[in-house]
Amino acid sequence: MTANIVDDPLIKKIRVVHLADHTGRLQTIFPENHMLDIATVSRLTKRRFEPVANFNSTGAPLLKVNSCTTIIDTALIKEEAISIRTNTHSEYREVTGDELKAFFSGPLNRFEAISINTSLIPNPTENHLDDEAQILQALGQFQSIRIKQRLEETLEIPPLPASSHRIIRLCSNNKVGTDELSQVISLDPSLAAQVMSWASSPYYGAGDIESVEDAIIRVLGFDMVMNLSLGLSVSNAFLPPENGPRHYEDFWLNSVFHAVLMEALVKAMPARLRPKIGHAYLAGLLHNFGHLAISTIFPPHFSILSRYKEANTHLASEIVEMKVLSFTEEQLGSWLLRHWGLPDDIATAIRYSKKPHYDNEHAILAKLVYVTHQLSKDSPIEPSVLEEIGLSEETAKACASQVNQSSNELHKMVALINGKKPSLL
């Protein structure tokens, strides 16, 4: 193999993913800009593989030739130049398609079309007003689902808790005060306990909280409690998934981290640009609501989606979702929140949270959720987005560092909530 080191973005890099079943391991090799098609691999091998738990963004190490059954994507042998490395710590080296074919000429290797060029995977619709039509069209591909004219007639959506209905009504009344909010939350003992646990968590350092009113006045504030209660009650309509991607963080911990980081970012923004802090908190708390909805409404498809995400950690989640479902978590989650009557800015922010250049109504809140996503993954942030929300990269990272330093407190917040409603996790 040619020994020159390469760092040319035009030369196609390979991706290595290891799969396994009860009889052994399979190594798959395909272009970095492709998505591994697990269904095709299963069809070719007549075996049901699961991705091996290796979530390094650079992919799995390349195993020694003929030490393991290997399938190499045929797209690679058509390339004049391929960038390859023998393990995750070595330098990339350039080889030709013919050299790659000769290198994997042993009896345990075969060349098959096992991946999909991501450029061939359709994008989600640009406008949320078209989401329902796209989701309905996608559901037409699910043979087990009977399609009706309207999405809410097709989906078996869990009923919205009575507490959510009450809080949504309060949201539209500008004259509501602490007494009314406390009364509504207290009608749901479980929700009241969750709010009090949240306010008494070590993160806020307020000590014991004796009532919902105490949580509002002493710690969280009216706006925060209103939106926190709404987020908790809506989420309680669903159970967090048991069969999700194994590298996906605990649902509530992920939600709490985003909510707290959203709060920190808003406080660091210039006052003239700040959205309502309670709405920012709620957008963070519900940012992955579509993940929750898919797991509850489409359990078999969610299981398939989870395996595809595990095998394709190098790709943006929406690419995998579009291939497997033909709609994204953000599309379904935001549609459902609108259907239930939650504030429009929350649904819009979640819908466009992975679109950094979205520039229409409620763009500031959407960009804040995007920044929170990127910070949580330690991924690059579009400089123009930071400029639009009035934050420097240093300030944004400082907010994330502050929240990360409170990791133990966040875990305790989640534990308190789960202790009041243990069936959630």
UniProtKB/TrEMBL annotation:
<dbReference type="Pfam" id="PF08668">
    <property type="entry name" value="HDOD"/>
</dbReference>
<dbReference type="InterPro" id="IPR052340">
    <property type="entry name" value="RNase_Y/CdgJ"/>
</dbReference>
<dbReference type="InterPro" id="IPR014627">
    <property type="entry name" value="UCP036888_HDGYP-like"/>
</dbReference>
<feature type="domain" description="HDOD">
    <location>
        <begin position="157"/>
        <end position="356"/>
    </location>
</feature>
<dbReference type="InterPro" id="IPR013976">
    <property type="entry name" value="HDOD"/>
</dbReference>
<protein>
    <submittedName>
        <fullName>HDOD domain-containing protein</fullName>
    </submittedName>
</protein>
